[in-house]
Amino acid sequence: MTAPAPRPHAHPFVPYTPPRLPPAEGLRRGQELFEHLDGRRSVRFFSSDPVPREAIELAVRTANTAPSGAHQQPWTFVAVADPDLKHRIRLAAEAEERAFYGREDIPQWHGALSRLETDANKEFLDVVPWIVVAFAQKYRVTDTGKQKHYYVNESVGIACGMFITALHTMGLATLTHTPNPMGFLTKLLERPSSERPYILFPVGYPADDCEVPELTRKPLEEALLWR
Prior knowledge:
227 residues; alpha+beta; NADH Oxidase; two-stranded antiparallel ribbon; 6 strands
């Protein structure tokens, strides 16, 4: 068979030839991954046991493999272990949460959260060994000015999903905490105006007496349609 003619490129390209798995092996791996991730839960009760810095590095390395619009990788992860800074984050987050739970104009939102039994108390932010905050980069400042980023929400969301997957694979737990508004994180973590806080992740091992709400996931027939 004659090899295909090389395609002309204006930029560097390299061959991509991942191994093609037999269908049965691919399905087996897919089933294992599903069963692994189906056991993941968001946690609000954490142990203070230490988590090695290398685990955070690996999780962010994994997030860095995510696809992104125009390969601009518009994310920054800030890892916090300093107890004083974690406490200041807690106080600021709780202030925003008290305002949220005190609002009387969003009863449906409060009702949707009721089965999770959440409130303004975020004690876990003092307990966890790490707080990792994902920031979304709206643009990048270069020597020639501002470089706008595209598909920022989609790109950072995918990266955060892979970050969560990596943590779960290492036996760690987290929570997608999004106090609203989150501008206090920009100030406390000294980030530039080109970035905005996206998700605050407490990271640690579940507490020995950890509990989670009894929930069921959406059935496949609701999540997948065939045409």
